[in-house]
Design a protein that fits this description.
Chain B: One of its GO terms (biological process) is transmembrane transport. The complex is a heterodimer of chains A (284) and B (335). Chain A contains twelve helices and no strands. Chain A is mainly α. Chain A has one domain: MetI-like (MetI-like fold), CATH 1.10.3720. The longest helix of chain A is centred in the first third of the chain and has 37 residues. Chain B is an all-alpha fold and 335 residues long. Chain B has two domains: 129 residues, no CATH class; 188 residues, MetI-like fold (Orthogonal Bundle). Helices cover 78% and strands 0% of the residues of chain B. The longest helix of chain B has 38 residues. The chains are: A mainly alpha (284), B mainly alpha (335). Chains A and B meet through α4, α5, α9 and α11 of A and α1, α7, α8, α10 and α11 of B.
């Protein structure tokens, strides 16, 4: 709680946190939606924003506001699954590499370097194309999680490398602690904030990927997500037909979401350690 | 000799190892999935209503297996895959049937490379210069404005930025064409008019890539400069009465440049994916558009070809930057 209070002193974090809370509130509201997001033609088509359809309606006869609540919920859930899975992988690989050193470290870091260099988007795309349309939230989350750990494993490793050289580690080793005890008792308290900061960055990456995959039409397009909302708006030529509210809703939401996540991760990592600023360099 | 052993050799080794890992992933993915590409292909043909007698069907399955390299044990398939790859043979495309994948890629690659190399270099230089100035004079109002803009633009996904630019400059204020790389049916020659049309088509896609790139480098460079700025040698230069511009260009920038060069190498992989999306938005005739068509028509061969090609292109460019590194960093040169 004190950490949150400290963080809220940062104007950027305050803004980001507010936006994030609004988006969370939206996704909670989806549970009270009067419409089923999977059904079309439940409201009059192509209405501009007006009461009771505050954000207007689509050419598929869906209410944009309620559709958005589902989209935000699904996108956030998916990105959370993805970043949880990749956190687990990143922690295991980063910890092992940093703690063990030697050959193990070389091999693991080579692996994560290859993941950084190889065009991941293409590989994920290939997966998605082959299971075309059958990819559900969980599947997509797992897929992105399996591929999204490389950079964060490097960050965690460099942190462990510095922890390993500190006095308390030597004390623990000399007093006969087992490796597991050292890892969980001594390292974890330092790693958890770092893991949290990279989690947010990874969530934003996962949502970006989801949007790209949806636009390319390789996701299950019936599931309401931010990406699929964009897909349908573009597919129905909403821009050319002048239904600006349809395309504007997902675009604005995603811009706010990305800025909020980015500012949050920046201000958390600066709060943790000013040196983190340098480590973030090169992250595209 | 020591330079060769400690610098050159590990990097060249890494280059080949990464390619092996990448190509192996490309090879494994289709075999991991519970989908039989041959059955899918046959299904596609029969679903159009064509009748096939069993003998033709068997023959077709046989040829398709040959085409996909699915004959023999897994090891034989793997070696066969490499053999064909090194000969530059990715098989025929299904999207434009008898045309081999490699010649489709050969047509698109120059467009993508042209767009990618120019935008990467331009945004890298621009971002570094702006970042150095912004980091050295953080109190100036233009530096603060740049800071705010970068906070907004940097987290934006390529797709959304590209789409907004397209809406703004091709639809609301129609200065630039909605898409394409050249006039439809036009022929490219090297006169002034031709080049102007080419530039006009490339402007928006390039702009979207440069915008994102510039602010990425801007932020990174700014942070490095801010830490270099307070080092002793800069203070001495200032006390020695050197002009501001000389301090920035000779002392601060030169030293802040080094991590940026590494960053350039690392980010090439990411930028490549961005370029693909940008091409799809602007229907620019490069690898991205080819990729889109491949996805749309379920053209596995083409998809695999594009993937392998990008792995080769990206790893090679990273190797080149890495090998050029000693030119910039004397510490590496004299090791």
């Amino acid at each position: 709680m004190r950490t949150l209070k400290d963080l809220l002193r940062d104007g950027r974090f305050r803004f980001a946190f507010t936006v994030f809370l609004v988006l969370l509130a939206l996704s909670v509201m989806s549970f009270f939606s009067p419409y089923d997001p999977y059904r079309w033609n439940v409201v009059p088509r192509d209405l501009p924003p007006q009461w009771p359809h505050v954000l207007g309606t689509t050419s598929t006869g869906q209410d944009l506001f309620w559709l958005l609540t589902f989209a935000v919920r699904n996108s956030l859930t998916m990105s959370l699954i993805a970043s949880m899975v990749s956190r687990v992988i990143a922690i295991i690989i980063g910890l092992t590499a940093g703690h063990k050193g030697g050959k193990t470290e070389k091999i693991l870091m080579f692996l994560s370097d290859s993941f950084l260099i190889i065009p991941l988007l293409l590989i994920i795309l290939m997966f998605a194309v082959m299971v075309k349309g059958r990819m559900n939230l969980l599947g997509l989350g797992l897929l992105l999680g399996v591929f999204g750990w490389a950079w964060d494993a490097r960050v965690i490793r460099s942190q462990v490398l510095s922890l390993r050289e500190r006095d308390f580690t030597y004390t623990a080793i000399l007093s006969g602690s087992s490796t597991l005890a050292i890892v969980f008792k001594e390292y974890m308290p330092f790693l958890i904030p770092l893991v949290f900061a990279t989690l947010i960055g990874n969530m934003s990456w996962a949502i970006g990927m989801e949007i790209v995959l949806a636009i390319l039409g390789v996701l299950n397009l019936e599931t309401p997500m931010i990406g699929t909302m964009l897909y349908w708006a573009i597919n129905y030529q909403s821009i050319l037909l002048g239904y600006w509210w349809w395309i504007l809703t997902p675009v604005t939401t995603s811009v706010f979401l990305f800025i909020a996540l980015y500012l949050m991760s920046v201000s958390i990592s600066e709060y943790l350690d000013p040196r983190m600023r340098i480590q973030r360099i090169g992250r595209a | 000799m020591r330079f060769f052993k400690t610098y050159l050799l590990p990097r060249i080794l890494m280059y080949f190892l990464v390619i092996v890992v990448g190509v192996t992933i490309v090879f494994i993915i289709p075999r991991l999935l519970p989908i039989d590409p041959i059955q899918q292909m046959i299904g596609q043909i029969t679903s159009t209503g064509a009748y096939l007698d069993p003998k033709t069907l068997d023959y077709m399955i046989e040829t398709l297996k040959e085409l996909y390299g699915l004959k023999g044990t897994l090891w034989e398939q793997y070696w066969g895959f490499w053999r064909r790859l090194l000969k530059g043979d990715f098989g025929p495309s299904y999207y434009q049937f008898p045309v081999p994948v490699i010649s489709l890629i050969r047509q698109s690659l120059p467009w993508t490379l042209g767009l990618l190399l120019t935008t990467t270099v331009v945004s890298w230089i621009l971002g570094n210069v702006l970042g150095a100035l912004g980091g050295y004079f953080p109190q100036k109002s233009w530096a603060k404005i740049l800071d705010v803009i970068s906070m907004v633009i940097r987290p934006m996904p390529y797709y959304v930025l590209a789409l907004s630019l397209l809406l703004l400059f091709a639809y609301l204020i129609p200065i630039f064409p909605l898409g394409g790389g050249f006039l439809i049916g036009g022929r490219i020659s090297f006169d002034l008019r031709s080049i102007l049309i080419l530039l006009k088509h490339a402007f928006l896609p390039a702009m979207s890539l440069i915008l994102i790139g510039v602010f990425l480098w801007f932020q990174a460079m700014k942070l490095v400069v801010q830490s270099v700025k307070n080092e002793d040698f800069v203070s001495y230069a200032r006390l020695g009465g050197l002009s501001q511009s000389k301090i920035v260009s000779r002392y601060v920038m030169r030293n802040a440049m080094l991590p940026q060069i590494t960053g350039l190498a690392l980010s090439l992989g990411q930028i490549f994916s961005g370029a693909l999306i940008t091409e799809i938005v602007f229907s620019y005739p490069g690898l991205g558009t080819l990729l889109y068509n491949a996805i749309f028509t379920g053209d596995y061969n083409l998809l695999m070809g594009i993937m392998t090609m990008s792995i080769f292109v990206i790893t090679t460019s990273i190797l080149v930057i890495d090998l050029l590194y000693p030119i910039f960093d004397p510490r590496v040169r004299y090791r």
